[in-house]
Model the fold of this input.
Amino acid sequence: MTQPDRAADPVSRFLRMVTGPEPALDEGALTIAAAAASDPATAAAEATRARAALDELAEGVSGPESLLHRLFTEAGFTGNTEHYHDPRNSFLPDVLHRRTGIPITLSVVAIEVGRRAGVALEGVGMPGHFLVRLPGTQRYLDVFDRGRRLDLAGCEALYRATTGAGPDVPFGPGLLPRTSTRQILARMLDNLRANYTRTKDHTNLEWVLRMRLGLRHQGPELIRQLGDVLAAQARWDEAARLMESWVDGPGRGSRSGAEVLDEVRTEARRHRAHLN
Done:
């Protein structure tokens, strides 16, 4: 029997990508999208079109204002306010094709078009709403709102509006951290995880969790959820072995206490009991 080509498996490819030096943002985002594609050929074609679209959008861009004009006036990118939780909002090829998405994927578009045009932008992981910033400045851009310019006060107003935080909750530059590529990819996967958990889509949730676990996550939460996802597909032995492996490996080196480790062992036994 012919063995599957693991090099073509998006999850395996993603895990290799994030274990080395800081990965390329566009390629990481495209690999996430590839995992949701119907087949490898479709994923490859979509990735090729997406790279070409990013290149085309960057042509003739000469600076930050030119970049904003290209994306939000000429190309018409906008936030998807009507169908915010549509998983397609998290897939770079779909966002480029449909010209709409959520804050973090629209930020990926802006960062990658800017990189190709020589315009530096960095991601800003504000809780509740992802932003981009001109490095070394306090000039923030809300790409979900067609590149609206924000100062620190504008960021605070947006933070309170999206999170519901009241005036008693302090706000400052500490809530506007520069995010690494790995952190951006993790946040993209966390959005998908929330979407697929809400819809109980175990097939897609599985690959999301496997990718997310590759981003240096040591706690039990994702392992326990992945175990439940495998069990929901009647893959009891696989679920038990996954959790036992975590307890005997990364779990021992994590900050999880003995009580948590015992809980995970108990869940593994519960999954294995379905085999008797």
Q: What stands out?
A: DSSP finds 13 helices and six strands in the chain. The CA atoms of residues 66 and 175 lie 28 Å apart.
